[in-house]
Amino acid sequence: MQSLARGLEVVRAFGAERPEMTLSEVAKATGLSRASARRFLLTLVELDYARTDGRLFSLTPRVLELGYAYLSGLSLTEVAQPHVEDLVARVHESSSVAVLDRADIVYVVRVPTKRIMTVAISVGTRFPAYATSMGRVLLAGLEQAEVEKLLARSDLAALTPLTTTDPDELLRVIAEVRSKGYAMTDQELEAGLRSLAVPIRDRRGKVIAAMNVSAQAPRVSMIQLEREFLAPLLEAAARIEADLPK
Description:
Arc Repressor Mutant, subunit A; Beta-Lactamase; 6-stranded antiparallel beta sheet; alpha+beta; single chain; 46% helix; 3-stranded antiparallel beta sheet
């Protein structure tokens, strides 16, 4: 079990900011010894989950298989996809659906617009929940004690100059999201990116996912984001909820 956990830590060490790493960098990122990191990396290479040129290591597309069983079995993904596509065609902005995994959100549906954005997002992308509109919606769906526990475990780093990192302020914001029923973020994940998110609930009323619309700040003000996109976003989320299996 410990070996499995460490192997998964090696896989999770790679990401958009670190697509390639040396053995020393992997060891540092995971806290493993060089010998242990080398053993896990070579195992991943042997299983074709990673590749190396002798110095740098990177993951291969086959690593997506590790999450495929979950995503393919998640009826939410299949149900939400056409509704997200319809919303994007209607509002001409990117839209996504994400679920909560500990203190992170994980994208399970993503439909981008044609516009070029700095953040590269696809199914499986993870971001810290505290800095995202969908994350705050998902956190608002939890009990207060669980939210406090997750924030305490999070590295509340300032991803941009506008990122809210104070735990008390985040708790206040999440409580407001719980009351209003939606969340908005203004360039907290990335400079120039604004986002609006609403919850997706199951038949019992439990928040199981969040859906968002994201737009570029120079084109869409926060007032526009709320005024023009909240209604169609709520309608799309309601259609997804209506189509979920009973």
